[in-house]
Amino acid sequence: MLAAPMSMLSRLIPSRPLRMPQIFSPRVSPDDPRIFTFNNERDQIIDEVVARAVEQHSRDPRRLLYLLNDAANLEVRRLSSQRDAEAELSLADWQKLLRRLGKMSDDDRREALRQRVRVMARDIAGNFDVRVFRTTRRLVPGVLTAIMDPSALPHEALRAGWPRLDALATVEGPVAKLQALAKIGTLVLVPTHSSNLDSIALGYLVDREGLPPVVYGAGKNLFSNPIVSFFMHNLGAYRIDRRIGARLYKDVLKTYSCLMIERGYHSLFFPGGTRSRSGMVESRVKLGLAGTAIEAFARNLTRGVRRPVYIVPTTINYALVLEAETLIEDWLKGAGQARYIIEDDEFSRYERVLAFAKKLPALRSAAVVRFADPIDPFGNEVDEAGRSLAPGGRVIDPASYVSRGGVPSVDAARDAGYTRELGEALPGRYARETVIMWTQLVAHVLYRRLVVESPGIDLFGRQRRRGEVMMPRAELIAEVEEARDRLLSLELAGQVRLGPVLRAESAESAVTLALEAWRGYHTRPIATAHGDEVVIEDPNLLLFYQNRLVGFAEALARPETLAASREIAALEGRR
After folding, report:
1. What is the model's pTM?
2. DSSP strand pairing (367-371 vs 309-318)
3. Architecture of the domain whose range is 6-33+127-430
4. Which is more confident, 134 or 529?
C-alpha cells in the first residue's frame, strides 16, 4: 500500500529498470506484521491455487471443456486485438489450444488447465520485500509533504513527526479497536473509491495509525511503469488484468484472494470496483473479491482454524478530487457505465498532478479517511473483544452461519447469498460514515440555486449554462450556514459526518475557502466572486462536488428550494 505515492513521482521521473538497494537486512520479528513472511509461502499459495482450480473444474468433463473453450476463445480475441509483446508471447499457444481442444483426452485437458492456471496465478501473485517496506516507510511522509506543501518540507524534516501532513490528512473512527482486532483476526478494508490517490491516502494513514499493511489488487495497467511496478510488486499488491474476461481467470483471482485471507493476510478491496464517476457515494456495490472473505472464513473452520474475519467499511473524503473533470464528463456521457479503465485522466498527466499539488497547501483539510465500526462477514456488529453480536447485543457464534448440524462446510450458493446481503448493507454504512467537506456543501448550495434558476431544463441543458447564473454572496453564506446546521443535526442522529473545516470555521469562511480552493487547479474555476455576486462558471464540476450530498438534498431544502432539492435527490437514480 505504501508504494502508491511513488506513482505520482513516476510521471516526473524517466522510466528505467530499478534494483533494490541493499539498505536493510530483511530481519523479521514475531511482532512484525503477517505480510513480512509472505515470500516464504508465496510458492505454496500458487500451488494451492492451482490444486483448487484443477480439483474444482475437473470433476465434470463437459464443464472442463466449456471452461477451456471459453478461455481460449476470449484470449485469442483479446490478444489478436492487442498486437503487443504479450500477444507475441501467448497468442500462438492459445490458438494451438483452441485447435486441439476438441480432440484432447480428459487427462490432456486437465493438464492444459493446470498449466494455464499456473501461468495466471504466477502473474497475479505479488511479493513483499521487508527492505522495500522499511525504506518506503521512511520516504513516504517526506514525499507526501513535498507534494502537499513543498514549502513546509525543510522545516518538517527537522521536527519530530510530520504535523503539517497530519493536519492535511486525518483519520477518524475506532482506530484502537481495529488495532486490537488485527491481532486476533483478519481485517478486510472495504473503502469507497473516488480517486487514484485513494491508495496513497490509505497506505500512508493505515501505517501512521499503527494498523498492519494490507494486500490489495491493483490494475495491471498500473504496473507498466518500472518505478510503480517495483514498489507495488514488492509491497504485497497483486495484479488484476481487467482486460481478461475469461471465467477461468476470474476464478483463479478469487481463489488467490481467498487463500490470502485464509492465511491471515489483512486485505483491501474497493467494492465499487472503479472510481465513482459521478462523485456520489456508492449506493450499489458488487463485492466480487471481497466476497471471498466469507469463503475464507468457512474454509478455515472446516480445518479447525477459528480465525475471525472483520469487514471494515471505510470512506475516503476529499476537498478536491484530482480527476474530477474527467470523471464527471465520463459520467455525463454515459461512458462511466462501460469504460472500466480510464487511461487518459488527470492522474496520467504530470502537469495536472503538479497543479493539484500546488493547490493542496492552501487547504485546511485535504483528506479525511473514516473507518466505520467493523462487522463480521455476515453483517453483525463486533465488540471490543472481537465477538459477534446479535441486534439485541447477545453474543453469537459466526461459525453457525456456515455450519450444518454443527459441522462447518463450504457452500458456494450459500456464501453468495451472504455476500449479496453484505453488499446490500454496505451502502447504508457508507452514507452514515461519509464526511462532508466544505467544498461539497458550498457546491451543493450553489448547484441548488442553478436548478432553481433553470426550471424545466433537463440535466444536460443545465450543464451548458456556464457563467449565466449567479448568487448574492450574502445569500450563499446564509444558506451554507443553514445547511451546515441541519447537517449537524443529522450528525447527532448518526446519519452523516462533518469535516474539520465545517466544524471549526464560519459559513463565511467556508465559502471563501471553497472559492479559493476551486481557483487555479481545474481547467476553469468552478465559481468565482464578482463583487457581491458569486458566478457559476463550470456546472459540470459543481455537479461533481455537490453530488456527495445528493442523499441529503431534501433534508437540507428550504421551502422555496424544495422542488429543486427533489430534482437533485432524483440524481441518485442516475448513478
Report:
1. 0.86
2. antiparallel
3. 3-Layer(aba) Sandwich (3.40)
4. 529
